[in-house]
Design brief:
two-stranded antiparallel ribbon, mainly alpha
Length: 332
């Protein structure tokens, strides 16, 4: 194995290592501490859970821009149910169930509309994002709904096991579940097949409609779960609770090597993307960079990642070499 192959194989860990080294040099007293790394993982856990489901529509060549709105709706449904239920443990179970069902229903609606009415995923999820935010505002009357008890609810986002925040365990568990589904099940292989070649998948007897609907349902479920974690962490529900999280989710998925064209990507790559985004956010905050510039930097990263993806696809298909050859012939 030559140096180029070694670098390619360990490219992602090397990128994280280099970034961590740079941040350690810039912030030697704050960045390389156990408490800071825990705070990074805790921040990652929210949109990390979203990634575990949001990657499925992207693997199909689609997208789900409503994850932040669904998270806000789910958190609001859960908190309101707990408050109206007198803060009992039974109301926590009921609230979490209702919150997850709300996410599933939004995902189901996306899948049905996309498959039956041929509406572009970008358009329908963008529209539903605004609709869901509006519904959440109506439910909360655009107010902050506090929920400081019971402990069975606050533990979800604020509890610790062995000194590690509980949301990190949820994130890692969902990542493992998503990995097993994508790599060890017929459904996972069907997702890659439909995203890579829809025509061939139909000829192979795969129901692209069922795969699409199931993928958007899972995306809605994980977004709802993340919303419940966020509501528990903040001990409150607010209509705009997860606004902007879709940017972090999309950035992590794309930077992690998942192609927006569909058919290529992995959950482990997306977890790498989440870690990279988390390190960038943490580093920018520690260096005192205004938050307004964070979105600019992440937007530039998305553009660079998409451009690299398209270039790599053209290069592997021979289009880049063909264009160069054509240019040489034209000059001659």
């Amino acid at each position: 194995m030559n140096n180029r192959q070694i670098i390619k194989r360990f490219q992602r860990p090397l990128i994280l290592l280099i970034l961590m080294l740079i941040l350690t040099i810039l912030q030697p007293r704050i960045f390389p501490t156990a408490s800071n790394f825990k705070s990074i993982l805790l921040a990652i856990s929210i949109y990390g859970v979203m990634i575990c489901g949001a990657i499925y529509p992207v693997l199909l060549g689609g997208i789900d821009l409503s994850v932040g709105a669904v998270a806000a709706l789910s958190g609001a449904c859960t908190v309101l149910t707990i408050v109206n239920g007198g803060y009992s443990n039974a109301s926590v179970i009921e609230g979490v169930t209702i919150g997850l069902c709300a996410g599933v229903m939004v995902g189901l609606a996306h899948g049905i509309i996309i498959t039956n009415f041929r509406v572009p995923p970008f358009l329908i999820t963008l529209a539903s994002m605004n609709i869901v935010y509006g519904i959440t505002q109506l439910l909360t009357n655009n107010l902050v709904i506090s929920c400081l008890k019971p402990k069975s609810f606050t533990f979800i986002g604020g509890g610790r096991l062995l000194g590690i925040p509980f949301p990190i365990y949820i994130f890692l568990s969902m990542a493992l579940v998503s990995y097993l589904i994508l790599n060890k099940t017929i459904f996972g292989r069907s997702v890659y097949c439909v995203g890579g070649n829809p025509v061939a998948s139909v000829l192979s007897g795969i129901s692209s409609k069922k795969i699409t609907v199931a993928s958007y349902i899972f995306s809605g479920f994980t977004a709802a779960l993340a919303g419940i974690i966020l509501a528990s962490m903040n001990q409150q529900a607010i209509a705009k609770a997860a606004q902007g999280y879709e940017n972090d989710v999309l950035t992590a998925i794309v930077v992690g090597g998942t192609s927006l064209m569909g058919g290529e990507g992995s959950i482990q790559g997306s977890v790498f993307g989440a870690l990279l985004v988390g390190l960038l956010n943490n580093g920018l905050r520690l260096m005192g960079v205004p938050s307004i510039y964070h979105t600019v930097i992440k937007g530039a990263i998305i553009i660079a990642a998409v451009a690299f993806d398209i270039y790599s696809r053209n290069k592997n298909s021979g289009l880049v070499k063909f264009k160069k050859s054509a240019a040489r012939i034209g000059k001659a």
